[in-house]
Amino acid sequence: MDAVNAPTSSPPGRGRPRDATRDAALRTAAMEVLAEVGYRALTMDAVAARARAGKATIYRRWESKLDLVIDTCTELVQRNIPEPDTGSVAGDLGEFLRAFATFLTGPAGMAAQALVGELPHESELAAAFRESFLLPQRNVLRLIMERGTERGEIAPDAPVDTVVELAGAGLLHRLMLTGEPLDTRFVDRLLGEALLPLLRKQR
């Protein structure tokens, strides 16, 4: 099983056995509250109220709101970021980018936007967010590049690292700054007009 799709590890439980369905409900509540109020204003009380759970139920699972938010991000990425293997770079990148765009434009995207605004002010959160949210999608993109190189689809002088950077950054820029739709039409433009031409670059 690959690292991106491996089951989320859980911190040691205290008290009664963990209920996976309850964990999911608590993560959903955390994501919703985070999207509404941001990281700084998020409290365990607010998450408990949204989930209709006792605060002790949350603290049996996560020791702090940082633990809760990062675990929620990790779980969301593992469930929503695919590792495609269609047999071509174009197919793999297209499948990945469309899935990532759908993920970002849903409820998780709103929570991610709320988190990004806090990163310059919360160094511990920033480090954990990069580890749990950004690195997994970059790792999938690098794997796609490696497979394409092995198949001979990518030029030897292609700026692979730049393509990996642009693939995610293009979607996040569109989502958070332009106000324009992050839709399939944009994904296809990014793929066909920027990413694939760069991978075929020749000196």
User: What class do helices, strands and sheet pairing give?
Assistant: mainly alpha
Largest sheet: none
Helix count, DSSP H or I runs of 4 or more residues: 9
CATH-derived architecture of the largest domain:
Orthogonal Bundle
Using the coordinates above, name the CATH class of the largest domain.
Mainly Alpha
Strand content: under 5%
Question: Number of DSSP strands?
Answer: 0
The SSE string, one letter per element, is HHHHHHHHH
Report helical residue fraction. Answer: 55-70%
Report the end-to-end length measured between terminal Cα atoms: 38 Å
Number of domains: 2
- The named CATH superfamily of the largest domain: Tetracycline Repressor, domain 2
Query: What's the CATH topology label of the largest domain?
Result: Tetracycline Repressor, domain 2
Stretches with pLDDT under 50, minimum 5 residues: 1-16
Radius of gyration over all CA atoms, rounded: 19 Å
Shape: elongated
Mean of residue pLDDT values: 86
Topology of helices and strands:
Elements: H1 20-37, H2 44-51, H3 55-59, H4 65-80, H5 89-105, H6 107-116, H7 123-150, H8 160-178, H9 184-199
